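Protocol step 4 of 6: structure prediction from sequence.
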Amino acid sequence: MVCLVLVIVSAARGAEPSPPIFECDRSPLLLRGIDIWSPEGISRKRDVLVVDGVIEFIGKSGKTRTEKDWRVIEGKGQLLLPGFVDAHTHFVFPGSVGDRPNAEPVADALAFGRQLLASGVTRARVHLDTLAHAKLLLDLASDPCAPMPLLQVGGPAFIPGAGNDERSPVWDVTSVDDAIAKVRREHDLGFQWIAIHDAHKFPVDSRDAIVRTARQLGMRILSSGYTQAEVASSLALRPDTVDYLDVSATPEYAPGLLDPARAQPQLTWVVRVGIHERYRAFQENPSLMDAPRNYEFMNATEATTLREGLHKTLTDRGSEHSKRMDGAYPTIRRKFEQLRALGMPLAMGTDVGSPGHFHRDAIWWEIETWVKYGATLDQALTAATLGGARVMGDREIEGIHAGTRADLLLCPQPLTLDRSAFPDCRVIRGGVLFTAAP
């Protein structure tokens, strides 16, 4: 596998991070003799040629003439999947690592990006971030050789009562004019999404100004479904996505609450259930937090601090966070079943970066939990790929066929879900082979 080589030019303390320099091999790539997954079934023994980051053609194996400058991977016995899309991520440490006066934003971003990419995530949407950090992530990920997923971002989320600190990942609005100015500011930085929480708590004119301005500028709307009150107010906005399941201890969604979703063809529900299973697994078996792969690409000192902090946090069942997670846990499966019963488009969002939710393997916890909660593996993979492509609004990653972007996973067969060793797939991002080696 071809390594990605990167050189980071460190910024002086207090200055803006300097852009890194990435290098990679983007020569034509032939995947020979592979099996190709799709929701309709598996196509056996195919050759796939990638040129300039795009699938040039797919043909029967053994009939493709190779050129001397091509990279060739023998894929016999391996399964080719579209790259996963994580539609709800945070590029932050999944727990406290204490005071970090010498924090390096670029190094941190690459650590989290590498963990996601090593897990098979080739596209991701970043939720709830500061203006400066979201712009940094967008710039980093735009490099075709960057060892991280290609990103879409939202900046500070709009939340009533959140304040108006320029350095904060959450914003309130003080007036209609303020709402318009803040949406325009995010748009001018190249952000693709506006996020709204607790829509029912905003003054109606300010809330409508956020949504109207975003629509006028071609931005999309992420609205929160973290509580049942938020679900109702979010659906009234006709957003592009509703994110989360209700995390209250209420056993299920109220009758009729979800029905308006059926009448919204633009809507995709971004489901996150794996975080609850992972949190419970860590509570019941804290040694799972010690797995070395959880800390891949992290600074050793910070990894140790993070590990110690998570053991303290997750084993404290009396903390407010633990009580909230414990209260929600028995209800999540039923609420997931209710959403699936709607028959509407669903996508996967891990909410990675939340306490105890490492970027490494978060998407596999999601896939495993979908299957545990009654979905088939094909349904879970469809949500992680085609569902995510719908969220991103990107026809270039809708499946594997000639003309689509070469964001791909080459996985061992049979594809099994085992949390002790989730599949280690070879990852191709835009035709570039990624290696998990630090």
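Step 5 (inspection) to follow. The two ends are 14 Å apart (CA to CA).
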